[in-house]
Write a structure and sequence with these properties.
- The protein is of the alpha/beta class.
- It folds into 2 domains: 88 residues, Chemotaxis receptor methyltransferase CheR, N-terminal domain (Chemotaxis Receptor Methyltransferase Cher, domain 1); 188 residues, 3-Layer(aba) Sandwich (Rossmann fold).
- The strands form 3 sheets. The protein has a 7-stranded mixed beta sheet with strand order 8-4-3-9-10-12-11.
């Protein structure tokens, strides 16, 4: 559930939005769109400056303009490119966020897959951020294990940012993070309390999830096919063309019956006909 471009705090005064020349803004906006799908408008100039200045300083550059010049030269190290892209992402996530998708999975999707004779179910958590979504999926499957006895599950989780994947693999969360959406019963059952008031996911859950780098703009073919895809609160940051491209490539790697779960503010309407929205279950789409 990685997201892009955090909104400015209400009442804050933005830095000068013309800190970049029009040419610089056009370049960096295109650079970010090509690598992450992020669509930036000129009113986000202040945010670009705020996010890129620390990257420039950390790499011994005096200004954002110098950083942009380095990127334009074509000689920027891969690590610098990664820092620039990751500086524009905010990784807002929580356990069992919105709850509905997890209810849809256990009450609608899994019973349908079981009825269809499916015994091996592959689930993809796209833009998984620091791991709360795939671990919530894993806890749901554990809790429903008796109901779906005989079915095997594989959870594949991807994100653009390496730093958040490292956190996800570690499975270590602060007291604040485990208090956001996680029922106390599940906290005590699936986590171990550690020093500094942190909580670590137990190995039985960690072993259920494979975390790997993944960019939604690149090919999904190497990941194989899936039965369920969680892609929530990501499409809202893409333009219409990119949304359509992502959705249609996801449709291409779904088995039938295949299911897609989007965020509450997201839809496939006017983007693709390859998914049919559920009338009764918000955010649930079936492969057409």
């Amino acid at each position: 559930m990685s997201s892009f471009i955090a909104p400015m705090t209400t009442g804050a005064t933005p830095p000068n939005p013309s800190a970049f020349t029009k040419d610089e803004f056009t370049f960096i906006a295109g650079f970010l769109k090509q690598r992450s799908g992020l669509t930036l408008t000129e009113d986000k100039g202040y945010l670009l400056e705020t996010r890129l200045q620390p990257v420039a300083r950390a790499n011994g550059m005096a200004s954002c303009s110098e950083l942009i010049a380095k990127l334009r030269s074509g000689g920027a190290p891969t690590a610098l490119v990664t820092q620039v892209v990751e500086s524009m992402t905010t990784n807002e996530s929580m356990f069992f966020r919105d709850t509905k998708p997890f209810d849809h999975m256990k009450n609608v999707i899994l019973p349908a897959l079981k009825a269809a004779g499916k015994t091996h179910v592959r689930i993809w958590s796209a833009a998984c951020s620091t791991g709360q979504e795939p671990y919530s999926i894993a806890m749901t499957l554990k809790e429903e294990a008796i109901k779906f006895a005989g079915m095997q599950f594989e959870i594949y989780a991807t994100d653009l940012a390496d730093k958040v994947l490292d956190r996800a693999r570690a499975g270590s969360y602060s007291q604040f993070e485990v208090q956001r959406g996680l029922p106390i019963m599940l906290l005590m059952k699936y986590f171990t309390q550690c020093a500094n008031n942190t909580w670590e996911i137990k190995n039985e859950l960690k072993s259920m999830v494979k975390f790997t780098p993944g960019n939604l703009l690149e090919s999904y073919a190497h990941m194989g096919r899936f039965d369920i895809i969680f892609c929530r609160n990501v499409l809202i940051y893409f333009d219409e063309k990119t949304k359509t491209d992502v959705l249609e490539r996801m449709a291409a790697i779904l088995h039938k019956p295949g299911y897609l779960l989007l965020g509450g503010a997201e839809s496939t309407l006017n983007l693709t006909k390859k998914f049919t929205p559920s009338i009764e279950h918000r955010g649930l789409f079936t492969l057409t």
